[in-house]
Structure formats: structure tokens, C-alpha cells
Design goal:
By secondary structure, the chain is an alpha/beta fold. It has two domains: 31 residues; 154 residues, 3-Layer(aba) Sandwich (Rossmann fold), CATH 3.40.50. Helices cover 44% and strands 19% of the residues. The protein is built from six helices and seven strands; from the N terminus they run H-E-H-E-H-E-E-H-E-H-E-E-H. Strands 1, 2, 3, 4, 5, 6 and 7 form a seven-stranded mixed sheet that branches. Bound molecules: flavin mononucleotide. Flavin mononucleotide binds next to helix 2, helix 3, strand 3 and strand 5.
Length: 190
């Protein structure tokens, strides 16, 4: 009886291994997941992040500041840190980047730059072998130095930039923002 069970387990193991090998061989590599990491103080970047996650069936992670700050301090000190390219403490992330092959990283534009929480995330992430797509939302029309600065941090952490985009949110309703996102990401491959 014991030897029969051992044989069944062995056959099942060989079958599963063979199937996995075939799947990987057919696709070139096993299909891995997409992650959307973002920060949002007033909800605009969150709308964009959720729209991307819907399209790519992606996991969604929101960066949270470790310290609670008043709106005034958040915006004034935040703009100063953004301008100086500084990070600040964020809450620990419940995600392992190793599980993902494609990562979207979204930031609001503050003082023409990406926000401090995004700086902290980008400085500590290992993007080796991953496709990374930075995006920003902004009140005006000019993403200024945000996208180039995010891209350079991502590249220095091993990521391959395969696209980027900026979305103007000023004067737009949430529905209008969602509509712009669909159009912006329509050309990215699955
Ligand atoms: C502190 C602060 C600084 C900002 N600086 C800029 C800026 O330099 N250029 C710009 O176009 N928009 C700026 N904005 C507008 C935001 O980038 C825009 O509203 C963005 O969509 C907010 O994203 P969120 O709702 O996800 O926080 C600023 C907003 C705040 C609160």
C-alpha cells in the first residue's frame, strides 16, 4: 500500500514538473504579475493607479507616510523635501517585488518633483530584471523634473524603463481623469 502511494506521489510530481516546463518553454518565461505602487494625498494618483490595476489585473500598493502631518506641514515640508530630492519614513510595505515582472510607480507632482514617499520607495527597491513605468499626476501641464528623476532612480536600481506618462488633473472630474488614463495606457503591452 505504502509503495503504491509513493508511486502515485512520484507520478504526480513528474506530471506537474513537466507541465511547468512546457508552460515556461511555450511563453519563453513564466508569466509574472504586475504591481502598481503609488502615493496619493488628495486622491488623483489613486484614481490613476486603480485604473491601471483594473486593466492589468495588477496588485495595488499605496505608500503611507509613517508620520501623520497636518495638511499645512505635509505640503510645505513635503514640497521642500521633494525639491531637495529627499525621502521620509514610510510605513513598511506588505509586498515582495520579487513576485512581479512589471511595476508601475505613481507619484503626485510637488514643486515640480516626485513626492518624498516615492523617493524612499525608489531608493530602497530592487528593480533588477523588471520593466518599470513611472507616472505622475499634476495640477498643471508640466511634469517638470519628476519623470526624469524617477526614471534615473529606477535605472540605478536595475529597472528597465519601458514607458512613462504624466496626467494633468487640475480642473478634471474623477471620471475625466479615468478617461485620460485609459487612453494613455492603451498602447502598453499586456
Ligand atoms: C504640496 C503640493 C505641491 C504641488 N506642486 C505642483 C507642481 O509643482 N506642479 C503641478 O503641476 N502641480 C502641483 N500640485 C498639484 C498636484 O500635483 C496634483 O493635484 C496631483 O494630481 C495630486 O495628486 P494626489 O491627489 O494623488 O495627491 C501640487 C500639489 C500639492 C499639494
Amino acid at each position: 500500500m505504502k509503495s503504491l502511494i509513493a508511486k502515485i506521489i512520484l507520478i504526480a510530481f513528474v506530471f506537474v514538473s513537466f507541465n511547468n516546463t512546457v508552460l515556461i518553454a511555450k511563453g519563453g518565461k513564466a508569466k509574472m504579475k504586475t504591481l502598481v505602487v503609488y502615493y496619493s494625498a488628495t486622491g488623483n494618483t489613486e484614481i490613476v493607479a486603480k485604473e491601471i490595476a483594473k486593466k492589468y489585473n495588477a496588485d495595488l500598493v499605496k505608500l503611507e507616510d509613517f508620520k501623520q502631518r497636518s495638511k499645512f506641514v505635509l505640503y510645505v515640508y513635503g514640497s521642500y523635501c521633494a525639491l531637495k530630492d529627499k525621502g521620509w519614513d514610510i510605513k513598511p510595505l506588505n509586498v515582495n517585488l520579487k513576485d512581479y515582472s512589471k511595476v508601475f510607480v505613481g507619484s503626485p507632482v510637488w514643486a515640480g518633483r516626485q513626492v518624498p514617499a516615492i523617493n524612499t520607495f525608489l531608493t530602497n527597491a530592487d528593480f533588477t530584471g523588471k520593466e518599470v513605468i513611472p507616472f505622475v499626476t499634476m495640477g498643471g501641464r508640466n511634469p517638470a523634473k519628476s519623470i526624469p528623476k524617477m526614471s534615473s532612480k529606477i535605472s540605478s536600481r536595475g529597472g528597465k524603463i519601458t514607458g512613462s506618462f504624466a496626467i494633468q488633473t487640475g480642473g478634471k472630474t474623477p471620471e475625466e481623469i479615468s478617461g485620460v488614463v485609459k487612453e494613455k495606457i492603451s498602447h502598453f503591452t499586456e
